[in-house]
From TrEMBL:
Keywords: Cell membrane, Membrane, Transmembrane, Transmembrane helix, Transport
InterPro entries per UniProt: MFS (IPR011701), MFS_trans_sf (IPR036259)
Localization in the cell: Cell membrane
Name of the protein: MFS transporter
Main location: membrane
Species assigned in the record: Paenibacillus cisolokensis
Domain of life of the organism encoding this protein: Bacteria
SUPFAM superfamilies, per the entry: MFS general substrate transporter
Membrane topology classification: Multi-pass membrane protein
Transmembrane segments: 23-45, 57-77, 89-107, 113-135, 147-169, 175-194, 231-255, 267-287
Length: 324
């Protein structure tokens, strides 16, 4: 039996798994840092630029552009590097970059807040694939779906609580304390990850030595040859573009259309997080009864109906005003 197989305990409670306990606690700390970062920086930038659309949209650019560019590279390196060491170093470097930004923010230019988001977004693309690799090593296959469901539910819970947490920290203590909390959260996450069992040494012969360019090419070629992956990739690209537009415009919808203070955005995002929790629960309940393709189509149709209804109401109001 290999070391990887030996690390997986077929029986027992999932929450007694030391690896899973550690990853969940680490993820809680990361989510605290990420949501304090997202909303403290958003509120700070809007205050400094008087709600300038370009400055606000730049936050989304520095957050999501690294995901697009480095997700391919991070996934490739996740198979080459030791996952535990990779995760610890990513969180540690994120913390260092945040404290550097804090120093420059105190003594220099406020625009450095963009760098905190940019660096942590890059490093997360190397850390996340390592988490998935460790999941397969330390969690039994029959428990893997439950483990991922709880992991995703935790993220959804922070989508409900995170915006309020970030805005509260910024309004109470300002951007410097918010950035400091973000750095401490990343640093504590790195410390917690030391509880993960040691990485398994991978024995490679000279013929099996990895070639980065070759692996990257093979990955793209595999996706391109697979009709299913191409369709899924296109669907995710379209959905991601829609979410990116909505997320950027959300602040201005609150201010200009609803006439509310920008802090009201936290309640809209909390509703979004609650909807994600409900949707995740429904999927877990019906996943065994219906095909995955049917569940996917139902989700896409629900989103399309919601946006069609919103657009229809907007068009009706415009026609009504024109008729007057």
């Amino acid at each position: 039996m290999s070391n990887a197989a030996a690390a997986v305990s077929p029986g027992g409670s999932l929450f007694r798994n030391r690896f899973y306990q550690t990853v969940l606690f680490s993820n809680v700390l990361l989510q605290i840092g990420i949501w304090v970062r997202n909303f403290a920086i958003l509120m700070f930038v809007t205050d400094m630029t008087n709600d300038d659309p370009v400055a606000v949209s730049l936050i989304s650019v520095v957050e999501f552009a690294p995901i697009f560019v480095f997700s391919f590279i991070g996934g490739t390196f996740a198979d080459r590097w030791r996952p535990k060491r990779t995760m610890i170093w990513c969180d540690f470097l994120s913390a260092i970059s945040v404290f550097i930004v804090l120093l420059t923010l105190i003594y220099g230019s406020w625009e450095m807040v963009y760098l905190a988001t940019f660096v942590s977004a890059i490093l997360s693309q190397f850390s996340q694939p390592s988490v998935m690799k460790l999941f397969k090593q330390h969690i039994a296959p029959e428990q893997l779906q439950q483990a991922m469901a709880v992991f995703q539910s935790l993220i959804a819970i922070f989508m409900v609580l995170g915006p309020s947490l970030g805005i509260f920290v910024y309004r109470q203590w300002g951007i410097e304390i918010a950035i400091a909390i973000m750095g401490v959260a990343f640093l504590l996450s790195a410390v917690v990850l030391f509880r993960i069992p040691s990485d398994f040494p991978e024995e490679r012969t000279d013929a099996e030595k990895p070639d980065f360019r070759k692996e990257l090419k093979e990955g793209f070629a595999y996706v391109w040859r697979s009709p299913v992956l191409k369709v899924l990739g296109g669907a995710f690209a379209a959905a991601g573009m829609a979410v990116g537009i909505v997320q950027t415009l959300g602040l201005f919808i609150v201010i200009e259309r609803l006439g509310e203070h920008k802090d009201f955005l936290q309640f809209l995002l909390a509703v979004n997080g609650v909807a994600m929790l409900i949707g995740g629960g429904l999927v877990m309940a019906v996943a065994k009864k219906y095909r995955r393709r049917s569940c996917w189509r139902s989700g896409c149709r629900s989103a399309r109906c919601a946006w069609s209804e919103s657009a229809g109401r907007r068009a009706f109001r415009l026609r009504w005003r024109c008729s007057l």
